[in-house]
User: Fold this.
Amino acid sequence: MNIDHFEAFMYVVHLESIHKAAEALYLSQPTVTARIKSLERDLGIELFLRKGRSLTLSEEGKAFIPYAEQIIRTYQQGKKLLKREEHPKEIVIGANTITSQYFIPFALPIWKKENPQLRFKFISAPNDVLLEKLLQKQVDLAFMKEIAHPRIQQHELFNNSVRLVVYPGHSFQFQETVVVQQLAVEPMVFFECGAFDWNRVHKLFEVANIEPRIEFLVDHLEVAKSIILSKNGIGFLPYLCIKEELERGELIEINVSHILKIDQYIFATHFINGSEFPLLWNNILMSVKEFENPSLLLID
Assistant:
């Protein structure tokens, strides 16, 4: 038996496709198919049931998964033990765009200080790309939105809720309640990202049968925020983007939870059998607390 055959099997299992497994392994589809068939011959069983181009795990294939995972894991551990590593142990962290921009630069130095033996590699990518990298074990830990996948485990960290913000001195700052009709006449900066949650802002006006006064359509958070800071409009922005400006009083949050509430949680996400995650868990929780409560840094 060849370790490459076990690896090909597990890639097909995780990606549910020989085509995707071949791309991930930088191999041709016939090569991946040949490795799977060779493993089946060695085992004397069919790992997959084939019907035309479709491929589904057999009962024997499902039962073999934990053994294949253990074989690969043992091989990798033995390889690391025998190899003289020139670099410290490396952990690969991934994050979606907004978490990369506003939380990761704060947290990474904290994690490194607490774990000097580790070398951190960081990548920024959209949520769907992060999921694929987690499944391919190219990323040990990712910070991303909520997803549902049988081989992925998530831990809620903080709420990146969407909030209405205005510049200091705006008339909304001195009102107890703001209604949709008042929002509609204000010059608005709209962050256009196409996500379902953001479409709910559009729906708010649509349901009220009112056309909002959207004067700026932008696809970059910092551009949207700068326009509001320059007092040229108001807008809905995610908490991570405006956290520092709210703390300094440069932007004012207006409570509109009675007409719109959009919660967007960031989760620490890892492969269910991920081995690196527990190593950093306490440091991650500490960094989240310090990020949300800057006064804790002053105490230290």
Summary: The two ends are 55 Å apart (CA to CA). The domain at 89-158+265-299 is CATH 3.40.190.10 (D-Maltodextrin-Binding Protein; domain 2). The longest helix spans residues 59-82.
